Amino acid sequence: MPTRAEPAPGMPHPTPALAWSVWGLGALLYLIGFYQRVAPAVITDRLMADFAIGATALGNLSAFYFYAYVAMQIPTGVIADRWGPRRLLTAGAGVAAAGTILFALAGDLAWAAAGRLLIGASVAVAFVSMLKLASHWFPSRQYALVSGMALAMGVVGGVIAGVPLRALVEAVGWRAVMGATAAVTGLLCLATWWHVRDDPTDKGHASHAPPAGQDHRHPHPPIVASLARVLSYRNIWILTLVPIGFSGAVLTFGGLWGVPYLRQVHGLDAKTAALVTSTLLVSWAIGGPLLGNWSTRQGRRKPLYVASAAVALAAWGAVFYAEAPLPLLVALLVVAGLGSANIIIGFAWAKESLPLALTGTASGVCNMGPLMGGMLLQPGVGWLLDRNWSGAAAAGARIYDAAAYRAGFSLVFVAICAAMLLILFARESHCRQAS
User: N or C terminus: fewer CB in 10 A for the chain?
Assistant: First the structure.
């Protein structure tokens, strides 16, 4: 990251209002990124009709976001160190605005996919940038609070992409809504460049980060060497692959196929279906901090991870196969979301599984797992839906029956079962940092 100015003696720390406003602009890009991640769920019918595509092509279109997001996880940390959060967030918002315009104006599937690819690649910078800003603009004792607020901002984006987005789409059309989203993202780009600074010293305040020389006593090893060392630890492989099942289930149901399933199988209107899937996302967000703190109090990671995995497996199995009435289905989705939030335990567990000097690279690797779930399972479910399509359609969009959705969701269930078995082979860290 660019070298910051040395603070003058007696220079005050930034006020909370200033710190939150700087961090908040970075958090807004993360909110927009999460909104873009799950937005296709409530416009599946419009996308199928406009581009004359089936479930396989729709799943691939949505997954282009994840292809780019996953690919950017490791490079983002390196770029953030060299550019700093201000430049990275500004560039991310600008490219996201361009990608959203491209998606909104796309005349065919190829241009729409290119737009989703640009969006995924650009918003991937938000989370790392937010954490970097937090380490400079807030005292260390508030770091956990700010990290939790970051996740909350993401869920707000997911909720906006539910009922509010569907209402706007029905009023003015999905292309107009995406055009407005591009405009808002463009304004965020300008505001970020104007207001955000990498360190409080750039605005005449003392920094909360360690003084230069204390946080970089040794040069960072080359990224390839760090990556090779990280991948030599068995727990990293396991804790990266396990979220493909649990997080993938949430992103596949809540981010794409849940709304059409609820509409076509349970007969719900689009807004109610979007509201139901939003409860899944909210419970997922709530469960993360609860499970993470609980495992820390226990002093062990594995028992709670395994127990919550078993709960999630049972709940998802009932969602996919039990044909439950709507009230019970909503309750099952809440339980599934809470259990699937065990990936937060996994992030802490992975950090503790290898030396502290490697945790940055390890975080980038492990953060690929949850997004790989959406990347692989969204198009996989779409392919199975098309394989089991009965030929029904309405307003240019394909209609799938309950049997087709059971076949599609079977892929998700198999991934959850595999994740459940895989976690049994991870080594317990006892909440202690490896040396």
Answer: C
